[in-house]
Structure formats: structure tokens, C-alpha cells
Amino acid sequence: MNRERLLNAAVLLALGLVPLAAHVMGEPFTITLATRAAILALAAVGLNLALGLGGLVSLGHATFFGIGGYAMGILASHVQDYEPMFEWPFLFEGSTSMPLIWLVAVVVSALVALLIGLLALRTSGVYFIMITLAFGQMFYFFSISWSRYGGEDGLSIYVRNGFPGLNTLDPIQFFGLAFAVLCLVLLGVRLLARSPFGLALGAARQSPDRVQAVGLDPVRLRLVGFVLSGAITGLAGALFADLNRFVSPTMFSWQTSGEIMVFVILGGVGRLFGPVVGAVVYVLLEHWLGALSEFWHIWLGLLLLAVVLFARGGIVGLVAGREKAHD
After folding, report:
1. Distance of CA 98 to the CA centre of its chain
2. Of 26, 149, 218, 314, which shows the fewest CB atoms inside 10 Å?
């Protein structure tokens, strides 16, 4: 087993065992921190699929994160308010079922990613970045003006949604659910990266002309990668909204897109566990340094600067050395 695999196993083991220890010691706040890290890592894994494997620098992934959050908020709020979501062609009163909410979040995020990708992939480089950023801001300002679902004040959900067989109000059970979803998505991304599609997508990132010369369409490959990436980030948004039992336009903001990008760069772009390491480090810095100073982002900026200048492979690359992407 090489160093990167050992590091990946250690990270996964630590992320799983720390909340269990906190549960035994009766520290639910630590479990909530670990849950937040797992969900943010899931969002970053989604971006890493587009960025690390497909070479698509998206500054609009908060769009999908917010869509996932509002999918949860809208469906649950109708049940909470006893007001049907629609009555034609059939009566639908909303839902507090996590599997159904996740399905809606994934499908709607994927459809929006398809529309954005069809337009944005007509360009490349800085124009692609600007188009994805513009879509994020459009959704942000739309959500601010959408007074039916809270407008700029956001939308509170008083009871966490349910998952069959689990008490999701129990912090350790909700963490276990988020952790299991993260592990399944990591496994799926690993298999995808090694599949013919993943190899073709990686080749399209490195040399689109050569990919086209062998009869493959690099734009179509990137579009499929972008849609999958958006769907994963949308799923993370639904979980994040359930963790906080609150959704707001902030989930669509460019700052949120930037934070998800920071997770990936900190941990290591293109590394399978890079987003997980980046999200965990971010949450720890936010908790520890945030308690010392409200200007803790200065230290985060210095760390990011050091990673960009001296550790191009991120923290995973610094510890494990140069390895193939998604090894």
C-alpha cells in the first residue's frame, strides 16, 4: 500500500472514529463539527470531479449546493405549513423523507448543470469561469427576491427530515448517514475515474485535440462530467440544509463557491481524498482560529498561499508525494 492510500485510510478512519469517541464522551458539538466536515467534503468531491478530472474551473458550484438546499427547504416547508405544494394533476403535500428530497435535489441539480454546461462549455478558460459565476449570482439574487420561501431572511425547518430506520435528530445517527453517503460517493468517483469514461475525460483535460482525433467528443465528455459534478454538489446541499435545518440565499453566493474551491485546492486538486482533507482542515481552522479572532480568514489565506506556492498537490500531495490522480 503506497503512502497516499495509507493517508486516505487514516483520514477516513479518523473522520469516522472521532465522532464515535465524542458520542461516548457525550460531546454532541464535536459530532456536529464532523458532520459539517463530511457534508462539505461531499460538496468538494463534486467540484473535484469537474475540476480535477475534467479541468473545468467552476466558480458557480454554489448554484448546485443552493439548489440542493432549497429542494430540502421547499419540500419540507409545505409539510410543516400544512399547505400542499400543488394540487394538479395530483395532490402533493411536500415531503420530509430524505431519500425523496435527495432524489429531487440530485435530479434538479443535474438538469440545471446540464443547461449551464451546454452554454458554458461553448467557451473555455476565464469565460467559462465567468459564465458559471454569473449563473450562481443569478440564482442568488432570485432566491433573495423569492419571498414565498423566505427571501433574504431564508427558510427555517423546525424538524429534521427522516430516513427509514434512523432517528436523524440523534447527532451520531445523522453523522453516520452523512458519512455513509460520503463514502459511497468517494467509491463511485474512484470507480468512475478508472472507467473508460473517466480515462477519456482525463484525456480530454490533457489534450482535447487528440481525444477528438480518435473519434471522441471532448465537449460531450466534459458536459457529462459537469452534470455528475453538479448532482453530487446538489446532494451535499440537501444534507447541509438538513444539518442546519435552515436554507438561505447564502448557499448560492460566490463566497460559497469560493469556499468549496478552497477545500479542493487545500487538500489537493485531482486527488480522491484531497477535498475531504481540505474540508476537514477548513472546519478545524474555522472552529479553533474562529474562537481566537474574527479575522481568522487571514490565517486561512496564508495557509492557502503557502499551499499554492510550495505544495501544488495540496496537503495530500505534500504528505503522500506525487501520485496519479484519483489513485
Report:
1. 17
2. 26
Is the pLDDT at 183 greater than 90, yes or no?
yes
Residue 61 CA to residue 206 CA, distance in Å, equals 22
Rounded average pLDDT over 22-28: 95
- Please count the CA atoms within 13 angstroms of the CA of 223 that sit on its side-chain side: 17
User: Which triple of cell numbers denotes residue 223?
Assistant: 458536459
Classify the C-alpha dihedral 257-234-277-313 as positive or negative.
negative
CA atoms within 13 A on the CB side of 7: 20
Could you tell me where the beta strands, DSSP code E, fall in the chain? 155-156, 246-247
Asked whether the beta carbons of 186 and 38 are under 8 A apart, the reply is: no
Distance CA 82, CA 30 (A): 34
**Cα of 251 vs its chain's centroid, Å:** 11
Q: Are 139 and 67 in contact (CB under 8 A)?
A: yes
Residue whose cell numbers read 467557451:
123
Nine cell digits for residue 160: 429534521
Task: Say what the pLDDT of residue 321 is.
Answer: 79
pLDDT in tens, 62-108: 999 999 999 999 999 999 999 999 888 889 999 999 999 999 999 99
Write down the mean pLDDT value for the chain. Answer: 93
Gap between the Cα atoms of 46 and 58, Å rounded: 11
| Residue from 241, 249, 253, 266 nearest 152 by CA | 249
CA distance 311 to 321: 10
This prediction has a pTM of 0.95
Nine cell digits for residue 43: 460538496
Write the single-letter amino acid at 97. S
Q: What is the pLDDT of residue 325?
A: 46
Helices assigned H by DSSP within 90-195: 98-120, 125-145, 171-194
Rounded CA gap, 229 and 37, in Å?
18
| Three-class SS state of 92 | strand
